[in-house]
């Protein structure tokens, strides 16, 4: 399994990680089975959030961890806060010091651990006051509750705004990124052109992340659209799936591993956050950690995307 020093922080994480957003689909024994399967193939990083099923995902993860074949200190646990759990709340995001600190305390209790290895702010809060966040981060760090900090779904300007206030280096940005969600790449390839793909939707996230050695955690690596479905083995995308299968045969692996290896081939600290709930599937995806696609294969996959990634 390929390992990544996340944001050059000393957090040595597997390039394939398991996200537990969908864990509540399982009962506790099956959740433990999934965590064990992940660990057995070299996955040492687990992504949570307080908002997943209103805390149920963290609770189940914590419960499953107690029965797992590995111990807490053999793995890295991440959670995310900042989205208000109450769907009826009129304010959607809350980056106040009080909310962040309380949310982390709630997460730690559910996860059954005294610290998380990394904490991300889940989605940018337009009412963010960076100094307030800085106070929260400092308190959480001083109390030993959080080792490293990062963000999710932030653009470079939002990161800079926060970074100038917080003393800790922000080491991770978790973003939607897959063969079917390539905005980060398209805009750079279409710079100064007038077509739709030239539109910069993210403020230059890819070169920013590369320059600042900020790890990109790719969420929904096998989905298209916004949770519209899985593109692997999906009849809507015949050209892409034919190529995934061809390369899978060539590398003696499977299409999932090729799709994940495509993300890992990008010269940034990319970590794939897979969300499967099936032991067999996480074992298949983990094979990506040993595959290095060639430059030609990477481009062939990019251009096989049925919606048409054209070459300028
Ligand atoms: N930061 C954010 O805003 C954000 C947003 C969304 C997600 N996330 C994180 O990213 C993680 C992954 O997200 P995700 O679950 O949407 O990602 P995903 O790995 O792309 O999708 C997994 C889902 O697709 C299903 N699936 C069906 N066929 C599949 C196939 N051939 N290959 C792979 N999956 C297949 C899985 O079902 P089975 O369980 O049956 O395999 C599962 O329900 C989450 O757990 C969470 O940690 C973060």
UniProtKB/TrEMBL annotation:
Q: Which InterPro entries match?
A: AKR_Detox_Biosynth, NAD(P)_OxRdtase_dom_sf, NADP_OxRdtase_dom
> Pfam families per the record?
Aldo_ket_red (PF00248)
Q: Which SUPFAM superfamilies match?
A: NAD(P)-linked oxidoreductase (SSF51430)
Q: Which CDD domains match?
A: AKR_BsYcsN_EcYdhF-like
| Cellular component, GO annotation | cytosol
Q: Which residues form the NADP-dependent oxidoreductase domain?
A: 16-298
- Where does the record place a coiled coil? none
**PANTHER family per the UniProt record, alphabetical:** NADH-SPECIFIC METHYLGLYOXAL REDUCTASE-RELATED, OXIDOREDUCTASE YDHF
Official protein name in the record: Predicted oxidoreductase
């Amino acid at each position: 399994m390929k390992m990544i020093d996340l944001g050059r922080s000393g957090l040595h994480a597997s390039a394939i990680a398991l996200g537990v957003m969908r864990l509540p689909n399982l009962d506790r024994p099956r959740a433990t089975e999934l965590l064990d399967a992940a660990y057995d193939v070299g996955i040492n990083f687990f992504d949570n959030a307080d908002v997943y099923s209103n805390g149920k995902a963290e609770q189940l993860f914590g419960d499953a961890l107690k029965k797992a074949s590995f111990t807490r200190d053999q793995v890295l646990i991440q959670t995310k806060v900042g989205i208000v759990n109450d769907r009826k709340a009129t304010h959607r995001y809350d980056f106040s010091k009080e909310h962040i600190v309380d949310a982390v305390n709630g997460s730690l209790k559910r996860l059954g651990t005294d610290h998380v290895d990394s904490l991300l702010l889940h989605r940018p809060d337009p009412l963010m006051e960076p100094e307030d966040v800085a106070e929260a981060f400092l308190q959480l760090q001083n109390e030993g509750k959080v080792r490293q900090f990062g963000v999710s779904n932030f653009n470079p300007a939002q990161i800079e705004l926060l970074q100038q206030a917080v003393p800790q280096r922000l080491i991770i940005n978790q973003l939607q990124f897959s063969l079917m969600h390539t905005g980060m790449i398209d805009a750079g390839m279409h710079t100064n052109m007038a077509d739709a793909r030239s539109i910069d939707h993210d403020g230059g996230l890819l070169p920013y992340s590369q320059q600042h050695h900020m790890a990109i955690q790719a969420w929904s690596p096998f989905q298209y659209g916004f949770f519209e479905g899985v593109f692997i083995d999906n009849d809507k995308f015949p050209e892409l799936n034919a190529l995934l299968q061809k390369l899978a045969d060539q590398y003696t692996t499977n299409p999932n591993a090729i799709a994940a290896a495509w993300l890992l081939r990008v010269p940034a600290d990319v970590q794939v956050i897979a969300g499967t709930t099936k032991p067999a599937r996480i074992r298949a995806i983990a094979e990506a950690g040993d595959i290095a696609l060639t430059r030609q294969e990477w481009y062939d996959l990019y251009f096989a995307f049925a919606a048409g990634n054209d070459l300028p």
